[in-house]
Amino acid sequence: MKAFWARAGAMRSRLLSTLVTLLGLLVLTFFVGRVMPIDPVLSIVGPDADASTYQEAAARLGLDQPLWVQFGRYLGELAQGNLGTSLLTGNAVSADIVRVFPATVELATLAIVLGVLAGVPLGVFAASRRGRLGDHVVRVISLAGHSTPVFWFAMMGLLVFYAWLGWAGGSGRIALAYDGTIPSVTGLLLIDTLLAGDWDAFTNSVKHIALPACILGLHSMAYISRMTRSFMLAQLSQEYILTARVKGLSEASVIWRHAFRNILVQLLTIVALAYGGLLEGAVLIETVFAWPGFGQYLTNSLLLGDMNSVMGCVLLVGVIFVSLNLVSDALYQVFDPRMH
Predict the structure, then answer these.
(1) From which residue to which does any coiled coil extend (predicted)?
(2) What are the distances in angstroms from CA 220 to CA 96, 110, 116, 225, 263?
(3) Euclidean distance between CA atoms 224 and 229, whole angstroms
């Protein structure tokens, strides 16, 4: 019974901290957005509008009120599930996010899969050969992938694989010839083209997503491989590893069945945070590749001073990270035997 109440108290505490975090994020974003040197009213009426037109537009947007009144009104609308109307598109912000977010989810999911498939084995390989040539090569690759600006990789990728070799599909999610011909069922173009049975469109969408996904995957691979190497080195120095080797177990068994199993919980957290970072941090990739996703929508909203859209995007990012942290905690409960 005590354990039950302890868990209930922990859940209440976690929920409260989550709400406080999201509220703080909204407060910070709202007030920073209001002092930005971008006037959303001018974006609507134009720089040549007279004073009366400007004041009328400001009153219609509620921007003639004190900041605390504007924020209180925003919270009231948010409590009713209304994120406001986007100045960029004229649509409800929630509808815009539902429209653009699947493109980012598709890109980030493929990138994190590639990052995990490459990063984890490379990290294990480097740790098992500490101080040797293989370790140095992996560390150099990881350092280059993590420190080199992602937009530079994007531009070089377009130059080599699109302009010179013609392997990549170029900008956008799919060629213009297929645009609007695929029924949107899930919003994930790779899945929707398969559901429609259009193999030519599927192949074309693969060609378009492959390059940006590989570049994002390289960035996440660098981070995941470094963390995997660090976790593995900590485990390989433990006494139980020495005991396993003394017993005559093969090196592969020592590494994968013993050391790697003990870093799985830590890796789950790293992968979850890396995935969250890809979902909200693919702005530069989406800009370079004209990828019609969440990052490009947020960038255009910021340039226009469309704070309703910016606030909606920031709130979504906050919810994503909080949710991923909660999922990581839940996975800790499942995979860590010490939690049972």
Answers:
(1) none
(2) 27, 11, 8, 8, 18
(3) 8
